[in-house]
TrEMBL record:
GO terms for biological process: tRNA wobble adenosine to inosine editing. It comes from marine metagenome. This is tRNA-specific adenosine deaminase 2. Belongs to the cytidine and deoxycytidylate deaminase family. ADAT2 subfamily. It catalyses: adenosine(34) in tRNA + H2O + H(+) = inosine(34) in tRNA + NH4(+). InterPro entries: APOBEC/CMP_deaminase_Zn-bd, CMP_dCMP_dom, Cytidine_deaminase-like, tRNA_aden_deaminase. Its EC number is 3.5.4.33. Its cofactor is Zn(2+). CDD domains: nucleoside_deaminase. Residues 1-105 form the CMP/dCMP-type deaminase domain.
Length: 136
């Protein structure tokens, strides 16, 4: 999660909402990203989406079955959908997102039995550090 916080600080320095994400496979970073919505003028340029694209490019595959994502804020519906579609094994997040969190707080897309893939979810990792950055 500390590495995801480094990505989040990049977003903060660029006057973006400070959220960062990394994707790990076999203890190696294969993808990373930070929010770039304002920079790219793209509402889909969330940290998770950028990290997923980066990881898919690294592996030259859209399937991220044996990979885990670490993100500083609980993913929204769009990002949770991308997590399911890319078949990430686990989601580890820092701060809970009571406004639009869709892997725990409002809903858990990652464990909905109607989807063909599920991801493990664990929240509250380095919650204080992640929350502090979001409120700075």
């Amino acid at each position: 999660m500390n590495l995801a916080l480094i990505e989040a600080r990049k977003a903060f320095r660029n006057k973006e909402i400070p959220i960062g994400a990394i994707i790990i496979k076999d203890n190696k970073i294969i993808g990373k990203g930070y929010n770039q919505v304002e920079l790219l003028k793209d509402s889909t340029a969330h940290a998770e989406m950028i990290a997923i694209t980066s990881a898919c490019n690294t592996l030259n595959d859209w399937r991220l079955n044996e990979c885990d994502i670490y993100v500083t804020l609980e993913p929204c519906a769009m990002c949770a959908g991308a997590i399911i579609k890319s078949r990430l094994r686990n989601v580890f997040f820092g701060s809970y997102n009571n406004n639009d969190g869709c892997v725990s707080s409002i809903y858990n897309l990652c464990n909905d039995s109607r989807f063909n893939h599920k991801s493990g979810v664990q929240g509250g990792i380095l919650n204080q550090e992640c929350s502090y950055l979001l409120t700075s």
